From TrEMBL:
PROSITE patterns: PDH_ADH (PS51176). This is Prephenate dehydrogenase. It comes from the Bacteria. InterPro entries: 6-PGluconate_DH-like_C_sf, NAD(P)-bd_dom_sf, PDH_N, Prephen_DH, TYRAAT1/2, TYRAAT2_C. GO terms for molecular function: arogenate dehydrogenase (NADP+) activity; NAD+ binding; prephenate dehydrogenase (NAD+) activity; prephenate dehydrogenase (NADP+) activity. PANTHER family: AROGENATE DEHYDROGENASE 2, CHLOROPLASTIC, AROGENATE DEHYDROGENASE-RELATED. The lineage of its organism: Bacteria, Pseudomonadati, Spirochaetota, Spirochaetia, Spirochaetales. Pfam families: PDH_N, TYRAAT1_C. Keywords: Oxidoreductase. GO terms for biological process: tyrosine biosynthetic process. It comes from Sphaerochaeta pleomorpha (strain ATCC BAA-1885 / DSM 22778 / Grapes). Residues 23-267 form the Prephenate/arogenate dehydrogenase domain.
Length: 267
């Protein structure tokens, strides 16, 4: 029994093709981010097959495929919302090719990595990724933008292939653990979306008196609220460090309010 399992593992390892630029890449999910990501992969020379539940038209240069075609590509990027990820993976796991390398692109990392470990057979190679940009920030090209890669269940050489590939795109590739990512992202992307959504509650208006700082503030509201509301909820719910960030922010607001109250006594 053990010998059979060993033989199967060796056989599978030997049949896994090496990573190269002529691989077929599957993009599962052709929403705002998925369509953008599929086009980026095409721009960088890959053959891309895309699948979206309600996609009628393929993004430029992308071939629209069936769900099973996408799931059995050499490499598969899931571009679905964080809150849909577990269900999508559960529904597709048994149809993913044994030699397909799977990457998620969620904006949090501990949660999808845990789901990939739980739901995919151990022979399926997985990398957790976070392209820290999207259709707005990457509209004039992705060079210089940060891209996080966290190894989950992946041989070093395949992981390195993608590090080098994204470096060739001139992305600023950052290798870190999923925990490090979530801890830091809560205090960078998480806090930005929290402030953007909070300020949008105030319904701030454009004004002739707008200073440069005010314009920057308005652009934060615009950029964060241009993303689906679901992304905001998911960033706050699925990052285990987000609550701590929100409490920290609330504490700082209270401190500043208190300081100003003290100042009022002086006047
Ligand atoms: O450029 C955009 O369209 C984005 O909204 C990108 C943005 C962000 O700036 O927060 C949104 C989601 C991704 O996780 C990474 C970055």
């Amino acid at each position: 029994m053990v010998a059979t399992k060993f033989l199967l593992a060796v056989l599978l390892f030997c049949t896994i093709p090496a990573m190269n630029s002529s691989m077929r890449i599957g993009v599962y999910g052709l929403g705002r981010f998925g369509s953008f990501w599929a086009r980026e992969l095409v721009k960088h020379g890959f053959t891309v097959v895309g699948y979206g539940r309600s996609a009628k038209q393929a993004p430029e240069g992308v071939v629209l495929g069936t769900e099973d075609e996408v799931l059995t590509c050499d490499v598969l990027f899931f571009c679905v919302s964080i809150s849909a990820f577990a269900q999508v993976l559960q529904n597709t796991a048994s149809r993913i090719g044994p030699s397909t390398l799977v990457m998620d692109t969620c904006s949090v990392k501990l949660y999808p990595a845990k789901k990939m470990r739980e739901l995919l057979p151990s022979c399926v190679r997985t990398i957790a990724t976070h392209p820290m940009f999207g259709p707005d920030s990457g509209k004039d090209g992705v060079a210089g933008l940060p891209m996080v890669l966290c190894p989950v269940n992946c041989p070093k050489k395949d992981f390195q292939f993608w590090v080098d590939e994204f470096k060739n795109w001139k992305l600023q590739v950052i290798e870190m653990t999923c925990d490090q990512h979530d801890r830091e992202a809560a205090w960078s992307q998480g806090i930005t979306h929290f402030i953007g959504r909070t300020l949008s509650e105030l319904n701030l208006q454009d004004t002739k008196l707008a200073t440069t700082g005010y314009r920057t503030l308005m652009s934060i509201v615009e950029q964060t609220c241009n993303d689906p509301l679901q992304l905001f909820y998911d960033l706050q719910r699925y990052n285990p460090y987000a609550r701590q960030m929100r409490m920290g922010l609330k504490g700082s607001l209270d401190t500043v309010m208190q300081v100003l109250k003290e100042q009022e006594k002086i006047v």
